[in-house]
Amino acid sequence: QDQLVESGGGSAQAGGSLRLSCAASGFSKNWMAWFRQAPGKEHEGVAIISPSGVATEYFDAVTGRFTVSRNNTANTLYLQMNKLKPEDTAMYFCAATPKVGFARLAREYNSWGQGTQVTVLS
Predict the structure, then answer these.
(1) The Cα angle at residue 11 between residues 79 and 69, in degrees rounded to 5
(2) Which end of the chain is less crowded, N or C, counting CB atoms within 10 A of the terminal residue's CB?
(3) What is the C-alpha to C-alpha distance for residues 64 and 112, in angstroms, rounded to an integer?
(4) Cβ contacts of residue 107 below 8 Å, gap of 6+?
(5) Does the CA dihedral 35-36-42-44 come out positive or negative?
(6) CA angle, 54 as apex, 104 and 97 as ends, to 5°?
(7) Mean pLDDT calculated for residue range 69-80
(8) Tens digits of residue pLDDT in 93-110
(9) What is residue 106's predicted lDDT score, i.e. its pLDDT?
C-alpha cells in the first residue's frame, strides 16, 4: 500500500540543522512537497519537488536555508534544514499530489504522512 512516513524531526538550537526524511513508496512519479503546521495555524508550504527531482520551488520563509531532494531508487524524500529559526518550529509533513506542476496549496495534495515534530530552541 502506498504510504508516506516522515522521520528525522527533533529539537535543535537556533542556527543549527536537521534533516527530515520521508519514506515514499509508490510515489516516484508524483510531484511532492513538504508542508508544516504550527499550533493554531494552517498548513504552510515549505518546498515542492518534481518527480525527477530536477525542478524545485521554495516558499519565501525558507528560501536559501532549506533544500528539498529525493532519491526515487530509495523511495525517499528529504528536507535539509539549515540556519534554523525558532519560527521554523512546527509539525512537518510530506505530501504527494496527483497534479502535474507546482501545486502550492495543501488542498491540492491527497496523500499525507503523519508528520514529524521540529522544535527550534532560541
Answers:
(1) 5
(2) N
(3) 25
(4) none
(5) negative
(6) 35
(7) 97
(8) 999 999 999 999 999 999
(9) 97
